[in-house]
Amino acid sequence: MAVAHKFIVADDHPLFRAALTQALRQLAPQAEIVEADTMEATTDVVNRHPDADLILLDLHMPGAHGFSGLIQLRGQMPDIPVAVVSGSDEPYVVRRAIDYGASGFIPKSSSLQLIAEAVGRNSARRSVVA
Fold first, then answer.
1. Which domain holds residue 78?
2. 1 in a domain, yes or no?
3. Which of 51, 93, 97, 126 is the most exposed place for a label (fewest CB within 10 A)?
4. pLDDT score, position 128
């Protein structure tokens, strides 16, 4: 199974970033994981790591409004897949994220194991769904 080797985890909550990092370490213990806590920091990290295999992006980041962070990243680095991670998992939110270019959607209510499985199962297809 092909597994991404460089992840960018963009979430403003330190505990949730740590949880996502733990889930990714279950999947790929040797992967490089770079973290960001604002949209500005995310933009900087993406510019410094254009070879990232996947960005995990919280929809509600400081410096972003609605889907603006996702739209910005899709325009900035269209070749890096972006999986949206959000506590808002209503069907219209999921659909809009996909419509705006997200490669997948991970509800924050997902278990660490489910997140790792979703990323691993779908990395080869460049889509992530938990």
1. 6-129
2. no
3. 51
4. 52
